[in-house]
Amino acid sequence: MSNLKDVYILAFESSCDETSVSIVRNGHEEIATVVLSQIDIHTLYGGVVPEIASRQHIEKITLVIDECLKKANMTMQDITAIAVTYGPGLIGSLLIGLQAAKTLAYVYKKPLVPVHHIAGHIYANNLTRDMEFPLIALVVSGGHTELIYMKEHYSFERIGGTLDDAVGEAYDKVARILNLGYPGGPKIDALAREGSVTYELPIPLDDDSYNFSFSGLKSAVINLVHNEEQRGNEIRTADLAATFQDRVVHILTKKTMHALRQYKVHNLIIAGGVSASVGIRDSFASLCKDNNIQLTIPSMQHCTDNATMIGAAGYYAYKLGRRAGLDLNAKATDSLH
Ligand code: KG4
Ligand code: ZN
């Protein structure tokens, strides 16, 4: 039952190719969410086409808002505040969610709360279990690979990250060379389960730092495929997917477990689209069990882009008094804060 102290956040996410609106109660309870994916359209082009993405957002955003309110059986009067992803992401896409959020905030006189997309991914975990601190967050998505230390809510200390490609980007490019289509992550992940680790691929940036590098691993796969093709050899796609994922899992788990030890932290959360990988989830689950680490991973639908995570993060930002004016602008890049 709702009471006067309940905070209902109406959240917007449109940073890439998902148009999503959600209503979240008190930062951890999903009331209703609508996610409209454009994957079918972008698949035709082998990746996200920014201009098409923003046009799709414009066409769909008002329908998505209406559907979300209807699903929740709520009106704008029931909403406490409006949270919106302002960045990072595709500018044209971000601007659509931002404009919708600003318009509703203005018309209905609701506070406007800016949310960083990565904060959203991290807070997707708060829908699984109330986050416990201190924690280490591993964010693995199409645009990011970051290790973050959080000593309390909304305090983000970046301790490492990728020096070049994001993990998801590497998955998508490897999938493309193997003609698996877009997005490649789920396809590689599924194939990897059928294959064996039989190819020679390097473990990327295997040092003591908290940084990652995935462009060398990606290039190694591309070179391997070209060499095999030139020799007239058939590629064992499932084995190559298994070997690629093995190297990714090896380096992600090694550096994350190292960070947990160094920072003396017993809570790990994983976030971002790539955390939907069953291979990655299973490896972390067994390592954390062996090392007495409490692992939290978002449910599958909260791993990839969605507004529910923005509503969860938005609640804590709202509680901290973070507000934006109607001049809030979209940012293609911005550090997490
Ligand atoms: O978080 P997200 O939806 O968008 C960004 O903020 O980037 O992440 C998308 C990325 C894509 O690279 C996609 O291939 C990857 O997440 N992904 C996966 C899986 N599902 C999505 N990667 C590996 N295994 C999966 N099951
Ligand atoms: Zn994302």
What radius of gyration results from the CA coordinates? 20 Å
Biggest sheet, open or closed, and with what strands and sense?
Answer: 5 strands, mixed
What is the rounded distance between the termini?
A: 33 Å
User: What coarse outline follows from CA principal-axis ratios?
Assistant: globular
Number of helices: 11
Task: Give the overall pLDDT as a whole number.
Answer: 96
Residue windows where pLDDT falls under 50 for at least 5 positions: none
List how many beta strands DSSP finds.
10
Binned, the helix content reads 40-55%
Our estimate of the beta-strand percent is 15-25%
Q: What keyword list fits this structure?
A:
5-stranded mixed beta sheet, globular, binds 5'-O-[(R)-(carboxyoxy)(hydroxy)phosphoryl]adenosine, 11 helices, binds zinc ion, alpha/beta, 10 strands, 337 residues
Description:
The structure is a single chain. The protein has 337 residues and is α/β, with parallel strands linked by helices. The chain has helices at 39-43, 50-72, 91-108, 117-123, 167-177, 184-192, 215-230, 237-262, 278-290, 300-303, 307-319, and strands spanning 8-13, 18-25, 29-37, 81-87, 112-116, 135-140, 145-150, 157-161, 267-271, 294-296. Strands 3-2-1-4-5 form a five-stranded mixed β-sheet, with helices on both faces. The chain has a five-stranded mixed β-sheet with strand order 8-7-6-9-10, with helices on both faces. α2 (50-72) runs parallel beside α3, α4 crosses α11 (307-319) and α6 packs across α8 (237-262). The longest helix has 26 residues, at 237-262. The model has no long low-confidence stretch (mean pLDDT 96). Bound molecules: 5'-O-[(R)-(carboxyoxy)(hydroxy)phosphoryl]adenosine and zinc ion. The site of 5'-O-[(R)-(carboxyoxy)(hydroxy)phosphoryl]adenosine has 19 residues, from α5 and α6.
